[in-house]
Amino acid sequence: MKIYLPERPPPRESVGEALFLPSAERVGDSVPPAQRDYAMTDAIPMTQRGYNKLKDELRVLEDVEMPKIAKRIAEARSEGDLSENAEYHGARESQGMLQAKINLLRDKLARAQLVDPSTLPKGEVVFGTTVVVKDLDFGDKEEFVLVGAGEEDYDEGRILVTSPLAQGLIGAKVGDKVEIEVPAGTMHFEILEIRFDG
Question: The whole model's pTM is what?
Answer without folding.
Answer: 0.63
